Amino acid sequence: MNDNLESTDELNHIDSDRLLRLSLDMGEGMLKSGAEIHRVEECIRRICLAYGVAHVEVFAITSLIVASVRLSNGDMSLQMRRVYNSSNNLMRVEKLNDISRTVCKNLPSLDEFEKMILNAKKETQSHWILQYLGGVLVAGSFAILFGGSILDALVAALMGMIVIFIDNLPVKNLDSTVKCVVTSFICGLLTCVFVNFGIGHDQNIIMIGTIMLLIPGIAFGNSLSDLVYGDILAGVSRLVQSLIKAVLIAVAFGLAIFTAGVLL
Prior knowledge:
Oligomer: single chain
C-alpha cells in the first residue's frame, strides 16, 4: 500500500496518531479557508477510514475540531484542534478536496501525505495582481450597478484596492472581524473626503461598492448550508458571526460618515 503502512491491518498506535494529526491538518485548512462544517467532518472521516481505521468520530464547529479513531485491536487516539481565524480561500478548499480524493484513492505514505498538505498551503494563495484586480472589478462594478457614475466607480475601485491592501497586511494576532471594521471605517472616511473635494458624486453608491468586498456572504451561505445538513450548533454559530460582522461593518461606515461630517 505504501512505505509506512504495508496493510491496513498493521496500522499501529503511532501511525494512527500521525494519521489523525494529518487529517486534522486537512480539516483545519479547510475550515480556515471557509469550507462547510459537514465537508470538514466528512474529509477527516473518509481519510481515516481509507487507511484502515475501524471507527472514526468527528465533531467540528467554526472554532474547534475534535476527532477520535479506534483501531481494530482496540487502541484509541483522540486529538483536538482549535481554529482561531478563518477567511475565504476557495482555491485552497478545492486543492484540499483534491488531496483528500487522491489520498483516499491511492493511499500514499504519511510522509507523502504531509508533503501534499504543505504544498497546498504554499500554492493556493492567489497572486497579488489577481487580488487587486478582483477588488477593483467588484467594487467598481457594483458602483455602476447601483446607478453610480464612472467617477463613482473609479473611486469605489480605489477603495477596493485599499481593502485588499489592508487585508494583506502582515498583522499578527489581529482578529479578522476587527481588521474588517477598521477597513470599513478607513474606506468610509476616505470616501467622504473624496466626495467632499468633488472626486465622486454619490458617497452612498461608492460605499455600497466597497461594502460588497467586506460583507461575509460566503460565511452566511455556509451557515445556511450547515443548518440544512443538520449541523445546528455550527450553523447558528456561523450565522450569528456573519450577522454581527455585517452590523459592525455598517456601524463602522456610519461612524466614518459622522466623523467626516464633524471634521469636514
